[in-house]
Amino acid sequence: MYNISYSHCQRLLLTCAAALLLFSACKKTGSSAPVLTGVRYYAPPPNDTAMANLTPTGQWVVLEGNNLKNAVQILIDGVPASFNPTLFSDTSAVVQIPSVIPFNSVAAGDLNTIKYTTTGGSVTFKFNIVLPPPAVTNISDEMANPGDSVWIHGANFFLISDIKFAGASVDAYNVSVDGTTLAFVVPQFSAGGPLVITTKSGTTATPFNVEDFTTGVLCNFDNVMTYQWWSAGLDNSSVKYPGNTGTYAILNTGGPLTNGDGGWWNGGRSINCNSAQWVPVSNLNDPLANWALKFEVSVTSPWNGASIFLAHNGDWKYIARYEPWKGLNGATAPYKTNGWQTVTIPFTQFLTKPNGGQDGTGLMAPDLTTLVGSSGSGSINAYVMNDGSAPAATGLVVAIDNFRAVKIK
């Protein structure tokens, strides 16, 4: 027969009661599942209004609901969102929407959802999440030949329904997982035209033509031949520079340049062209940033040091520097290209020479007329010099083609 004392039973009952109280307290403070009721802008009043949809742009928003503390994961269309728990309350949570959502691979069940998980449970909230329209920032070679590969850089290359390159349809292409790179083989085309990309969310078209050897062309060394005979050599060999579109010029320093070597007039170091129309007179009131100088380059040997200087009409007041071997924080690295590549130099990068400074490192022109004159015309001049304080690590041999002034906005 068991003999259990009264005091022992009393202690057992007290222990059970304490456990029940502790369980009840935990349930009240942290075990309830979250509830989402809406999304609003993360902004001071009165701009903190309710949102009707979200776009993957990296913006910060406020999720509203209940039991939102103790979040362990927040998914937007199945993609983890960034958040800072210190910005949470029981009824609101500040969250950063992902800058990229790979719509091509999002599961059907994850589309237009916000899944919010805490230590107390999870909730899936239906909300309209919109794919932004496509955007193009760069084309690897705007003058590529049919059959050549080109790479398009930009954003939101998802759910593509149509691509036109110079008016010709592109039937096969590859897209990076993050939708920022699009690659395809140039189709047969009959004339120049824009690159047009259509997706489920909209259409984008370049404001300039690709495969256009006439519009805005200053010198292409073929049907627009303003080149002066002296200095840089000309060639049309597709063995030396495969993928060429005819004749091109070759800048050649003949070896590394010593520091302070400004002898651009020496053989092979400059391209000098006669006058051509940079900007139509009717466009001279456009913003300076709407225009750019473009050309193609092919660099087959490593280039590290010495700079290509670009000038309008031989005027050294505003100079653009082309130095692809320069990196951030003064770092340098040998530069080569994979075939021909398009270079875009916005007119805002034509800069003055500050007192005691280097050409092309000062202030930009206040407007187009200041840069290209009241007629909008002038020559194009490209020079190679080393105005740095150290010898160039390598020489420079680069093929250049298709100088043109282009409206980019």
Walk me through the structure.
The chain is mostly beta strands. It has helices spanning 6-30, 368-372; strands at 35-41, 60-66, 71-76, 79-80, 82-88, 92-96, 113-118, 121-126, 135-139, 149-155, 160-165, 168-169, 174-175, 181-185, 195-199, 202-205, 217-219, 233-235, 248-252, 270-272, 276-277, 291-298, 307-312, 319-322, 341-346, 377-378, 380-385, 397-407. Residues 1-30 have low confidence and may be disordered. The strands form seven sheets. Strands 17, 18, 19, 22, 25 and 28 form a six-stranded antiparallel sheet that branches. It starts with 5 loop residues before the first helix and ends with a strand. The longest helix has 25 residues, at 6-30. It is built from two helices and 28 strands. The protein has three domains: 35-126, Immunoglobulin-like (Sandwich), CATH 2.60.40.10; 135-205, Sandwich (Immunoglobulin-like), CATH 2.60.40.10; 217-407, Jelly Rolls (Sandwich), CATH 2.60.120. 7% of the residues lie in helices and 34% in strands.
List the helices and strands and how they pair.
Elements: H1 6-30, E1 35-41, E2 60-66, E3 71-76, E4 79-80, E5 82-88, E6 92-96, E7 113-118, E8 121-126, E9 135-139, E10 149-155, E11 160-165, E12 168-169, E13 174-175, E14 181-185, E15 195-199, E16 202-205, E17 217-219, E18 233-235, E19 248-252, E20 270-272, E21 276-277, E22 291-298, E23 307-312, E24 319-322, E25 341-346, H2 368-372, E26 377-378, E27 380-385, E28 397-407
Antiparallel strand pairs: 1-2, 2-6, 3-4, 3-7, 5-6, 7-8, 9-10, 10-14, 11-12, 11-15, 13-14, 15-16, 17-28, 18-19, 19-28, 20-27, 21-26, 22-25, 22-28, 23-24, 23-27
